[in-house]
Predict the 3D structure of the following.
Amino acid sequence: MLEKNIPLVELIDISVSFGGVRAVDDVSLSLYAGEVVALLGHNGAGKSTLIKVLSGAYRRDSGRILIDGKDAAINNPRDAKAYGIETIYQQLAVADNVDAAANLFLGRELVTAFGTLDDAAMESRARQVMGRLNPNFQRFKEPVKALSGGQRQSVAIARAILFNARILIMDEPTAALGPQETAHVGDLIRQLKSEGIGIFLISHDIHDVFDLADRICVMKNGRVVGTAHTADVSKDEVLAMIILGKSPPGALPGPGALRA
């Protein structure tokens, strides 16, 4: 069993350059089991690049990734999945023309002893995992394109955790959703937290962040401005971190913080 004081993930001095541009500059960040850490910053701040290093989409130029306190070799998305890291992007990668069960097992379909698709087994597993996340979900026979935005998010999250994800990266999970669907996704995130899953949350919605995140990390120009527990900072202070790069008293300043 993982000790409480050992993070699920540690990103240590991560740097990534594209040509002569340093997109991520010596960034360090941690995530614990059952914790939501929000990554904030303007477009181009480096948060998406940093997360793509963890998901295996980009290779880092330098730095270390530790999973459960041990060095992790993550060079591609398959490596990330092997460590229990799953990513849910803003543009949900769901197949609109098939149902929830087919989406959950897309590319990893169950087959019978005769080599045919085991639709019954896949639907049974889909009902189990969806029941865990959203007990009210009953639209298993309908194509995903017929579902609401919140229900589609349920399917994407269920697919991520079906194969025992422990670390979830969520990129703008409530973008383009109405208030009711946003609240539903918030409930899903709280359920995942209660199961000990660690979540990196990328969001531009500061209200979402304060509702859902335990800690925040603000980036600017590829560097960390500061990290803080959400209880220790105000929304105005976080906005000052994002816009001005100014780290408030309640935050731990990063190398990208404005110097007096």
Observations:
- The two ends are 44 Å apart (CA to CA).
- The domain at 9-93+165-253 is CATH 3.40.50.300 (Rossmann fold).
